[in-house]
Design brief:
160 residues, alpha/beta, Rossmann fold, 5-stranded parallel β-sheet, two-stranded antiparallel sheet, 6 helices, 7 strands, disordered N terminus
């Protein structure tokens, strides 16, 4: 049994499967490595395989998968392939800056597609796998930004 001290709590997730979208860098990488340290079977996914593989190489219980979370069919196939996931962390996201009057529709759709629709598609497919397997325990965690609460004049699409 693997046990770590996190925030004053003893955590053992050796019987759990964890998915971190956008797990190739930044917060996603840290989350993946921390969950791996608790003994969880961790899967990281994203669009670029090289950074994902570097994360997977950091621990024996992390595996890397290329996935565009905006692709509904690919997301459904991904969950069908890996099976039920106990903890799903929707961390994939992008940020682009422009004042509202200079924000193109393309920029708006790109940000919404990854940051919002990607989260929805990931959660929907993952939750369906859990329900189909008859599992009664699971967690869906959406990573967001304080910018959604406070706003920023050059991040209107990102703040939405």
């Amino acid at each position: 049994m693997t046990e770590e001290r996190r925030g004053g709590m003893s955590v053992d997730l050796s019987s759990r499967k964890v998915l971190v979208t956008g797990g190739g860098s930044g917060l996603g990488r840290v989350l993946a490595e921390d969950f791996a340290a608790t003994g969880a079977d961790v899967h990281v996914c994203g669009r670029r395989m090289d950074p994902l593989q570097r994360v997977a190489d950091s621990a024996d219980n992390i595996s890397a998968h290329q996935l565009d979370v905006t692709d509904e069919a690919a997301t459904d196939r991904f969950f069908a392939a890996i099976g039920p996931v106990d903890i799903i962390i929707a961390n994939a996201g992008i940020a682009e800056s422009a004042p509202l009057h200079r924000t193109s529709a393309e920029m708006w759709h790109r940000i919404m597609s990854i940051n919002l629709t990607g989260c929805f598609l990931t959660f929907r497919a993952g939750l369906q796998q859990l329900r189909d397997a008859g599992q009664d325990w699971g967690r869906l965690i959406a990573i967001s930004s304080i910018t959604g609460l406070s706003g920023h004049r050059y991040a209107s699409a990102y703040s939405a």
